[in-house]
Each structure stands twice: as structure tokens, then as C-alpha cells.
Amino acid sequence: MNFDHFVHHARRHPGMLPETRRRQLAAGQQPVALFIGCSDSRVVPSQITGAEPGKLFELRTAGNVVPAYVPDSASSEMATIEYAVIVLGVPEIIVCGHSHCGAVTALSAAGRGLEQLPAMRTWLGTDGMPDVEQGPEDPSVRIESKRHLRAQLDTLRSYPFIRERVDAGQLRLHGWFYEIDTGLVTACPHDDVEEFLPL
Q1: 184 alpha-carbon distance from chain centroid
Q2: Do 149 and 157 contact (CB within 8 A), yes or no?
Q3: What is the pTM for the complete model shown?
Q4: Could you write out the three-class secondary structure of the chain?
Q5: pLDDT tens per residue across span 55-99
């Protein structure tokens, strides 16, 4: 699809929704979940979940990274999580990792290949990491990506307002892993079991 066709299509089909549904959405949002996923163009939350407009509050970051909780910093990621939980009151948060992730590949190679991307190196926390001889042998980086996903869930659990609501039974956290090449989505167990389970 070229850009001119995209623009023409968007003008003719605003939202692809009936007018009554668009009016409902304009009145306010009540998403059922916050979906934290990678910015990768191959990862499409609505396609993975089947969610219609208004159902997912989305946060897309490079490598589906959840930053450490530093409330006084100017972080759009923390602000998005805060708004979803405190204002919108989402009952579920899904952190979705995926195979063939460039960010995880860079992490596995201690940031090698990101020399021209200083902001990315800082975001991924690879500044000051020693270079290694080679990156992961598996281009899908499934094992590394699943470990990375667990780390993001741990970071999310450290947010005080998240921990408070999880402990009160008002919020549930989920780790999902999407395989780009197969379309399979698996869930991260809530314990130390390595094997992810099909949804």
C-alpha cells in the first residue's frame, strides 16, 4: 500500500466504525486493559487480541521496556501507566514481548550495533556494557526475549500504585509472548517455571 492510497482510504473510511459507535467512543473511554508492547511494526495489539477500538489502552515502547519507577522524571511511559491504572482503572495489564526483537538482540549483544543510536543505547541500558564477540545464535531470540519480558513484569510490579492494587486484588498483570513467524501467543507463568503456556 503506497502512502497516497493510505490517505485516500483513511479519508473515505474514518475509523471503519458505525457513526453510533464513534459517538460512544467520543463520550469517553473505558478500556479493559493496558497493553504494553513493542513499537515493532509487526506487533499489532488489536490483531493479536482481536480488540475493537476503545478496548485497549496502548503503550508502545522500543523493546516493550518498562522504565524503572522514578515519579519526578519526565517519562511518557510512566505517565501512560499511571493514567491507565489510577484514572482509567484498568483491571488488567498485559506486557507483550515478541520473537525476532531488535531491541532484545541489541541487549544480547551488549548494545553492539547501536553506536549511531545513543538514545536507544541509553533506553535499553546498554551504555557502559562491555562488547561481546557475537550476539545470540538464534535470530528469533525467543529465550532472551522471554527473559526480557519477565524483567519488565518485575519492574512493573515495583511501581507502588501497581503493587498496591495487585495486593488488593484490583489489578492483574500478564506476560504474553507473540511469535512473529508462527502467530502463536503464549502466557508467562506466575512462578519460576520457564515454559510459557499457550493462551
Answers
A1: 16
A2: no
A3: 0.83
A4: CCHHHHHHHHHHCCCCCCHHHHHHHHCCCCCCEEEEEECCCCCCHHHHHCCCCCCEEEEEEHHHCCCCCCCCCCCHHHHHHHHHHHHCCCCEEEEEEECCCHHHHHHHCCCCCCCCCHHHHHHHCCCCCCCCCCCCCCCCCHHHHHHHHHHHHHHHHCCHHHHHHHHCCCCEEEEEEECCCCCCEEECCCCCCCCCEEC
A5: 999 999 999 999 999 988 888 999 999 999 999 999 999 999 999
